[in-house]
Amino acid sequence: MPDNTAENFADHLGDLLGALPGVEAVALGGSRAQGTHRPDSDWDVSVYYRGGFDPAGLRALGFPGEVSEIGAWGGGVFNGGAWLTVGGRAVDVHYRDLASVEHELAEARAGRFRWEPLAFHLAGIPSYLVAGELAINRVLRGRLPRPDYPDALRRTAPQFWRAAADRTLDYAEAAYASRGRLTETAASLGVAALQTAHAVLAARGEWVTNEKTLLERAGLRPLDATLAALAADLPGGFAAAAAMLRAAG
């Protein structure tokens, strides 16, 4: 086991995962790659493979945790992974099929993408998220492209996310806010806020790989105060929140 330092631990992960059959590259992601982590932050690592990957090899390393099969996370661009404890540290491993990643990168460069639902992502994810990982993550082993944000995507993605936010707000107003349904209204405003934040950052040409700091980056954190007042005046609070989101950016 390497010395008890973050740098040596990252190097250790690169060695372990890079040696698995079929793996061509390993990248460190999340807050650890961007230097914004806390001492207790997880380690997010992606293994990039070509032509197939057998999770049995990862399972055979013998670390405590859960190792999924390929496709177990819904079959989209997030096609499986593992939650492990390695040397006392929480490590999340994501499977990345290089053929799929290269396809989504080419699609993003043409301004095309699709939306996918994904657990723990309230607004779902765009398929160009895996291209964003290439741009942001730190490569530990192998070689990966580091794409700029495509001009075509800066045109198409904001339109998509704005339209999604508008649909969410319109439905929430008609089905929830006008009928006094506080919980559903608040939940819908949260989703619309994240959709709006995606639009704002896409227009700037900034990659998004998760929702954890999305509202801060888009300047939408003040929405918290508006949502906190919903119970006192649901129609008025909804109108104020919707106006804020539609004017954002």
Summary, kept brief:
By secondary structure, this protein is α+β, with helices and mostly antiparallel strands. The protein has helices at 6-18, 30-34, 55-59, 98-109, 129-136, 151-175, 182-204, 214-218, 223-228, 234-247; strands at 23-29, 43-49, 65-67, 81-86, 89-97, 115-118, 121-126, 138-141. It folds into two domains: 6-141, Beta Polymerase, domain 2, CATH 3.30.460; 153-247, no CATH class.
Care to describe what's here?
The structure is a single chain. The chain is α+β, with helices and mostly antiparallel strands and 249 residues long. The chain has 2 domains: 6-141, Beta Polymerase, domain 2 (2-Layer Sandwich), CATH 3.30.460; 153-247, no CATH class. Helix content is 47%, strand content 18%. The chain is built from 10 helices and 8 strands. The chain has helices at residues 6-18, 30-34, 55-59, 98-109, 129-136, 151-175, 182-204, 214-218, 223-228, 234-247; strands spanning 23-29, 43-49, 65-67, 81-86, 89-97, 115-118, 121-126, 138-141. The strands form 2 sheets. Strands 3-4-5-2-1-8 form a 6-stranded mixed sheet, sandwiched between helices. A two-stranded antiparallel ribbon has the order 6-7. Strand 4 and strand 5 form a beta hairpin. Helix 6 (151-175) packs antiparallel against helix 7 (182-204). The termini are far apart. The mean pLDDT is 93. InterPro entries: NT_sf (IPR043519), Polymerase_NTP_transf_dom (IPR002934).
